[in-house]
Amino acid sequence: MGLLDGKVAIITGAGGGLGEAYAKLFAREGASVVVNDLGGPRDGTGSDLSMAQQVVDAVTKAGGKAIANGADISTIAGGQSVFDDAIKAFGKVDILVNNAGILRDQSFAKSTEEAWDKVVKVHLKGTYCVTKPVFNFMRDHGGGVIVNTSSTSGLIGNFGQSNYGAAKGGIWGLSNVLAIEGRKYGIRIWTLSPGALTRMTADLPRYIENPGAALDADGIAPAVLYMVSDLSGDQTGKVLGVSGPRGVREMKMMEMEGWKPPLDKPWSAQDIATHAAEIFFSDEDSKHGARRF
């Protein structure tokens, strides 16, 4: 018995890296998988369906069930295509993992509109385009699980990734709303913040300097399996960080109790300065394992 017996999963960006690892693990656990990947280099130029097909071939050779889809998920038509192929081949969708992405890193001062638009379109709009038909199907058919991929670049920040960080922060915000709207329909929403050594991250300084500390894609996949399986119960609206140095941990927005200005008289900027200790986190908070984002 597999953890995903009888389930149907869509995984975008599954022609390599993290998505490929998810697809193969899900299939081993009994799921039928739609492997979506536009193909091509990591900057989003070009296309090559053979990447998705190679993963499908590996899954089927191992006895699993999978089909390939090469649609551009950053368009409404592409997102609908992925969903339609799942319904045509397997009759339903129980799981969606929005994993597709590209990188066009530039410092903000040197950034271009073209690079900004492309990265935001693939990550943020792409998550919308695929999720829309799947969410509506799950709403009408008893629920399901959706995992949206964010990043510490969006939750905390990272030099040279303003476009990527903005898109990943937007995905986190989208997930928060979907968790609220999907709860009554039995749709569970997760946000994943993975840290792994893949084609997308191979030249990042932190992995070049400490390659032994990085997880590979297979090291991230069990956490995603946990999220989409019954092992995670009815949990929804949570962010799970998974990486080599910090392991597996929930990440969340934090807020201080704060200072409450008087409602019956004006208050000033000086008042905020006076009550700063009540309003802002201190360095002491980080000593107790908390990270602010």
TrEMBL record:
PROSITE patterns (UniProt xref): ADH_SHORT
Coiled coil (residue ranges): none
Keyword Oxidoreductase: yes
All residue ranges annotated as the Ketoreductase domain in the record: 7-203
Pfam families for this protein: adh_short
Keywords for the protein's UniProt record, in alphabetical order: Oxidoreductase
Entry keyword annotation includes Oxidoreductase: yes
SMART domains registered for this protein in UniProt: PKS_KR
Family: Belongs to the short-chain dehydrogenases/reductases (SDR) family.
Name this protein carries in UniProt: SDR family oxidoreductase
The species this protein was found in: Tardiphaga alba
